Amino acid sequence: MEAINILVVDDDPVTRALLSKRLSKAAYAVDTAETGVAAVEKLQRQCYDVVLTDLMMPGGIDGIGVLEAAKEHHLKTEVILITAHGTISNAIVAMKKGATDYLQKPINFDELILRLEKIQNWRHLLKNAADLRMAMDITEQTACETIQDLEIAVAELQERISAMRDTLERSDLSADQRIDMALKC
């Protein structure tokens, strides 16, 4: 399976470095942004499979703003929000705006990796489904063309059989003449 690329957004340099190191070690392609503004700029230039963002960040764009920008620029980007101040209402707001998941600090890395693997598997299944749909479309098109060709061939053969029958039923010709003419149809 192809590795997914992740944008880690957190104003805390220690959290950002720790996430980057652990995710890189788990074979994910990782990019980082120290603010919501920097994240939005990166999202405008590049598509990420997953954005892992802190909910509360200074600088005018928080995690919800990053979520909105990610979905605006790349609808298929999965966003996981992380916060030390987790509340059910924050989670509900995030999920309504398109967040894939919601984690609380301190981050359980095993749980995070499992969630990323789930996203990766889901993306792989979607790709396989799309590939199957394309193969089915091609097969259906080929089948339609084959049926059409067969219908034309059958119609031509029916015309030849009808002409042969008409020739063989003629009474004004000898049997040998009818056979010779029927074979030329």
UniProtKB/TrEMBL annotation:
Supply the alphabetized keyword list.
Coiled coil, DNA-binding, Phosphoprotein, Transcription, Transcription regulation, Two-component regulatory system
Every copy of the Response regulatory domain together lies at 5-120
Which GO BP terms sit in this record?
regulation of DNA-templated transcription
Modification 4-aspartylphosphate occurs at: D54
Q: PROSITE patterns in the record, alphabetically?
A: RESPONSE_REGULATORY
Question: Which terms does the record give in the GO molecular function aspect?
Answer: phosphorelay response regulator activity; transcription cis-regulatory region binding
Q: Which domain of life is it from?
A: Bacteria
Q: Does the entry feature the keyword Phosphoprotein, yes or no?
A: yes
- Keyword Manganese included in the entry's annotation: no
Protein name (database record)? Response regulator
Name the source organism: Desulfatitalea alkaliphila
